[in-house]
Amino acid sequence: MSSLFVNIFNGIVIGTIYALSALGISLILGAMNVMNFAHGEFYIFGAYFSYFFSRSLGFSPLIAILLSLGLIFWIGFLVEKTLIRSTYGNLMDSLIITFILSIVLQNIALIIFGPYPKKPPSWIRGSINVLDLFYYSSQRLITFIVAVLLLILFFIVMNKTWFGKIVRAISADREVASLMGINCDKVNSFSFGFGVALASVAGAIISPIFGVTPMGGVGIGLTSVVVVVLGGMGSFKGCVIGGLLLGIIENIGVAYISSGYRNIFGFIILILILLFRPSGLFGTTIK
Amino acid sequence: MKKSSKNLLLVIFLGIVVCLPFLLDDYWLHVAILTLFYVIMASSWNLLAGYTGQVSFAHAAFAAIGAYISGILSVQMSISPLITLLFGSVIAAIFGLGLGLLCLKMGGIYLSLTTLGFSEIVHIIIKNEYEITRGTMGLEVPNLLGFYSKTAYFYIMLSITFIIIFFLAKLIKSDLGLKFKSVLNDELAASSIGIDTVKVRVIAFTISSAIAGFAGGLYGHYLLLITPEMSSLSQMFMILAMTIIGGMGTLSGPIAGAVFLQVLSEYIRIFGKFHLLLFGVISLLVIKFAPGGIVGLYRKITQSKTDLLKIETQSKYDY
């Protein structure tokens, strides 16, 4: 019984990471109408940069994560300006460009960091007894807490600040928003940077547990997309619930069926959703 | 350029291609056969992406399905590969039809997502079901002809490539091809004049999956070893990069792109691990600065000399 609890709790922890990453995709999709297939690669680069800053340059984990977050934000900002801006209004072109970008980034990671997993240092050691049911690694628990805090921060930014208001306005109606004097190009660059920064911070905080490999981004990128579709495109709430659901389903599937098929559960869910409820749990279909 | 001189160039080009086995050594003949495989793959992917505007990421996976079905049947039931090849193609077409029906109604982005997911599923299943597919070890399959001859194989590949390209050219010029283009250019307008857009897309998707499955089988029975690498995303990326660098939405583009990338990758063989990175950077540059690819550049050069009026009347997706 306690192993079931552990599996469910593991699912919730990884689910918050999926949710963070999926929120990035959802933000970019909503604000810019661009499906970012290179999202998983920004996730692994977030992890690699935090590894680089903490292991090679000796910063403390928190500073390393903040540095990598800032760096990825600016990389995303520049990528939007140079590559993605020319594809506005053409979903297919942006799909192709971000797919190529993902291959390029994977290979850069492979060349710089090598094919073997890299792990930033843990923040904390030991484990905690949870309600006398099971022992749980402190690192996982603290990762979970940080992820939840970040999720709360995201919702505060989107609902209470000026930036969130503008992004929501653009998602609702781009033309009217620009008539109201919003500089859409600038907001696009910021939201792309912000979106990929969410992926990178998700990668950075989970990497002390799982490590990071150059090809690790493919699975997480696809999973995040599945979460977005599961939750419903355009719904931030859906991303969080979809992420948690998928995390739990995957972990139970891995525990009771086979660990080789970890990523398949997500795709089966994707196909089921497309068959029976294309709008997802909370969303509307996009055209 | 005048039509007659264009035809002359084509004839000279074909003549050189047919004589290739006498001009090249064994190794380069091998490269030529692989190039032909990529020509088929890129051309059939182009039918989808370039002519009907559906970006599918499962093309390499369909090739792998064709290769594995054909390989497994010929190994386990010892049927001649000439027959199992067709089975592989049919199974790939059935998968294509199913996937097409599943997500083409919703169009665009859902197709790309589902095909990407499907391609990963195929990759994972091939890797994990090692009792049947022999996993990452690779599946040994018999030769297509029963004997091993690169020259013979080259001519088989060449004639099949010709047939497929000819078929694609006829298809694009036919009524159905016109429907493909109308769906690409304006889906709403196309459906308003009575074109069943979903049906048109499903047809295109099924045809291209069948071709991919067939090509995959041919590739497998030539290399004699099929590995899960066939269904990987980097393989898919190669097909995509070739089409884009050659020129998407043109008939000659994928051919030019496949030849260019294959020959280039032979010349930069020493920088093995930089291949994909370099190809990615090239394709990004092409999209950014020369969206028409090699064919587009060539047309720009030849057309700038002829009258300008012609350029204006020529549609973007004309070939």
How would you characterize this protein structure?
The complex is a heterodimer of chains A (287) and B (319). Chain A is mainly alpha-helical and 287 residues long. Chain A has one domain (2-217). Helix content of chain A is 75%, strand content 3%. Chain A contains eleven helices and two strands, in the order H-H-H-H-E-E-H-H-H-H-H-H-H. Chain A has helices at residues 2-32, 39-56, 61-84, 91-113, 138-160, 162-172, 174-179, 184-210, 216-231, 236-256, 262-276, and strands at residues 127-130, 134-137. In chain A, strands 1-2 form a two-stranded antiparallel sheet. In chain A, helix 1 (2-32) runs parallel beside helix 5 and helix 1 (2-32) runs antiparallel to helix 10 (236-256). The N and C termini of chain A lie far apart (45 Å). The model of chain A has no long low-confidence stretch (mean pLDDT 83). Chain B is an all-alpha fold. Chain B has a single domain, classed as ABC transporter involved in vitamin B12 uptake, BtuC (Orthogonal Bundle), CATH 1.10.3470. Chain B has 15 helices and two strands. Chain B has helices at residues 3-23, 26-49, 59-76, 81-103, 108-128, 130-133, 150-173, 175-185, 187-192, 197-223, 233-246, 253-267, 275-289, 293-303, 308-313; strands at 139-140, 225-226. In chain B, helix 11 (233-246) packs parallel to helix 13 (275-289). The model of chain B is unreliable at 309-319 (pLDDT under 50). At the A-B interface, helix 4, helix 9 and helix 11 of A face helix 5, helix 11 and helix 13 of B.
